[in-house]
Design goal:
Layout lengths: L2 E2 L1 E3 L4 H4 L4 E3 L1 H10 L5 E3 L4 H10 L5 E3 L15 H15 L3 E6 L4 H9 L3 E3 L4 H11 L2 E5 L2 H10 L7 E5 L4 E3 L9 E4 L11 H10 L4 E4 L5 H6 L2 E2 L2 H10 L5 E5 L2 H10 L4 E4 L15 H12 L6 E2 L3 H15 L3
Parallel strand pairs: 1-4, 2-3, 4-5, 6-7, 6-8, 8-11, 9-11, 12-13, 12-14, 14-15
Antiparallel strand pairs: 5-16, 9-10
Bound molecules: 1,3-dihydroxyacetonephosphate and iron/sulfur cluster (SF4).
The site of iron/sulfur cluster (SF4) has 13 residues, from loops.
């Protein structure tokens, strides 16, 4: 009971076999928020997830990430100074009409910024509900750091593409042609380098070769890919949809490869392929491997806490607000 090891679905099989709980980012955040027994939480996932676990557990509970290189390229696309600079520009343009929402795939500092400004976190599993909630609070939203999840979900609830602009943190400029007053969603120009590797050509080729195939993708994929697919939804949605599908049905999945391979193994009665035949796993998720995991556990056994993930109190006090606003609506 002193040790708990949560594992994200994108972790390698060699690691996930030892996880005490397996889940997507929402489920893992919910589990950590109620995990009051464990003294040590060895998080099998990426850095932003370990930070979230630290903020949702008591100060005496220690969160460990066995390889500190397990980051997230999407989370790295929004840093706090860029966000503060962009926010000033947005306030000048639209005044106090914007509520910030951040995908949990972001640093604790961004979550703190969002919490301080009345906003909340979202995950792929609750993005729709959270965007709907945000519009009960303010006229507009800033959605960061994943433009694709923001665009796909906003479109899903009826917001048109010409009501969304893109903010580029590298140039501090907006990408938009239209009426600025009609903008409802400001999308941060960030993306997941894994899910951007699916494209329309993959869908066209598959449909040509196999007209019966059903295509299911994660909403971190581009708008075109999501629109051309049959289904789009969170990690849990994809896992459940395939589990519940008819035996013999044919599927192509557009998401991270460790998970796709696991879904293939766990559903031998269906014919499943990756939407991109040359897809790789998420490189940073893959940093957590058996040697690193073993090293951190052996050190723990010797009484040494290595790679301890801690979020400073001045950041976490606001970041927790954004996480709690999400958890109470999920
Ligand atoms: P979810 O776990 O919210 O589906 O997110 C996918 C992902 O990219 C995690 O890094
Ligand atoms: Fe980040 Fe994408 Fe990897 Fe998830 S799959 S950890 S969003 S780079």
């Amino acid at each position: 009971d002193r040790l708990f090891m949560p594992g994200h679905h994108y972790q390698k099989d060699e690691v996930i076999q030892f996880a005490d709980a397996r889940g997507d980012s929402l489920k893992l955040a919910q589990i950590c928020a109620t995990m009051d027994k464990a003294e040590f939480i060895v998080f099998c996932g990426v850095h932003f997830m370990a930070e979230t676990a630290d903020m949702l557990t008591r100060p005496d509970q220690k969160v460990i990430l066995s390889d500190l290189r397990a980051g997230c390229s999407m989370a790295d696309m929004a840093d706090i100074s860029q966000t503060e600079k962009g926010w000033v520009k947005m306030q000048e343009k639209w005044g106090d009409t914007i509520l910030p929402l951040t995908y949990v795939n972001s640093t604790a500092a961004i979550k703190g910024f969002v919490g301080k400004n009345g906003g909340a976190c979202v995950t792929s599993g609750n993005a729709k509900e959270m965007i709907e909630w945000a519009f009960t609070q303010k006229e507009r939203i800033l959605f960061l750091p994943d433009q694709h999840l923001g665009r796909n979900t906003a479109f899903d609830i009826g917001i048109q593409l010409n009501e969304m602009c893109v903010y580029d943190p590298l140039t501090n400029e907006f990408e938009f042609e239209g009426d600025w007053d009609s903008v409802k969603v400001i999308l941060w120009k960030g993306h997941c380098s894994v899910h951007e590797k699916f494209n329309i050509k993959h869908i066209e080729n598959l449909r040509k070769q196999n007209p019966e195939v059903k295509i299911i993708v994660h909403p971190e994929c581009t708008f075109d890919v999501v629109q051309a697919s049959d289904y789009a939804g969170s990690t849990n949605y994809i896992i459940n949809a395939i589990q519940e599908a008819e035996a013999g049905s044919k599927w192509a999945i557009g998401t991270e490869m460790n998970l796709v391979n696991r879904i293939i193994d766990e559903n031998p009665d269906k014919k499943i392929v990756s939407l991109n035949p040359f897809m790789c796993p998420c490189l940073t998720m893959n940093r957590i491997d058996l040697p690193h995991l073993l090293w951190s556990l052996e050190k723990l056994e010797q009484g040494e806490v290595v790679n301890h993930i801690t979020v400073p109190e001045e950041v976490s006090k606001n970041a927790v607000l954004s996480l709690e606003r999400m958890l109470e609506r999920s």
